[in-house]
């Protein structure tokens, strides 16, 4: 592909002597409007300020150029893009499988996992597995899903109502908390634990224990 100037299209803006126009609308280092000046004058000012002349709006007439430290600008832009990718939230669906006649202790353990997933900002797919004659009692699975939804209603909501899928009954719970919020809170908690460990080096001798999330369900 070729642009109207006869050169190949580039994502990088033109700077300094790569700018090929008679005059430019110049913006100063602090964002002040200098006005329309000849290109030679703009390049002269860039040298005086020890900065680069960067074309920021090539399609304007005349093109808009700004005096800036282009190397610093590129570095800061790369850091912002990196931070944005780091904070990007990806939708994750966890799955938890239960039996319709689950015993109380096992139910509490499974519920603990669901609580942890919702606190992390993840969706949870709850699957009730029916076997044999249990398939003739779908109300057992429905009641169990309703009970679980009520037990975790402070953390999540029913995003997809219970529905039969072959031998299984499925319900999807969505978190009240957004993934980005959960990630930010997790980082803050981790930084707080590190700061506490640094301030009290003898408080805990087990790093794994210090990093373990408090909401982790007890082992069966």
From TrEMBL:
Pfam families, per the entry: IF3_C, IF3_N
Organism superkingdom: Bacteria
Signal peptide extent: none
Compartments, record wording: Cytoplasm
InterPro entries, per the entry: T_IF-3_C_sf, T_IF-3_N_sf, Translation_initiation_fac_3, Translation_initiation_fac_3_C, Translation_initiation_fac_3_N
Matches recorded under SUPFAM superfamilies: Translation initiation factor IF3, C-terminal domain (SSF55200), Translation initiation factor IF3, N-terminal domain (SSF54364)
Alphabetized UniProt keyword annotations: Cytoplasm, Initiation factor, Protein biosynthesis
Comp. bias regions, Basic and acidic residues: 180-197
Domain Translation initiation factor 3 C-terminal residue range list: 92-175
GO cellular component assignments: cytosol; membrane
GO biological process: ribosome disassembly
Gene3D superfamilies reported in the protein's UniProt record: Translation initiation factor 3 (IF-3), C-terminal domain, Translation initiation factor 3 (IF-3), N-terminal domain
Keyword Protein biosynthesis assigned: yes
Biological role: IF-3 binds to the 30S ribosomal subunit and shifts the equilibrium between 70S ribosomes and their 50S and 30S subunits in favor of the free subunits, thus enhancing the availability of 30S subunits on which protein synthesis initiation begins.
Subunit structure: Monomer.
Family: Belongs to the IF-3 family.
UniProt name for this protein: Translation initiation factor IF-3
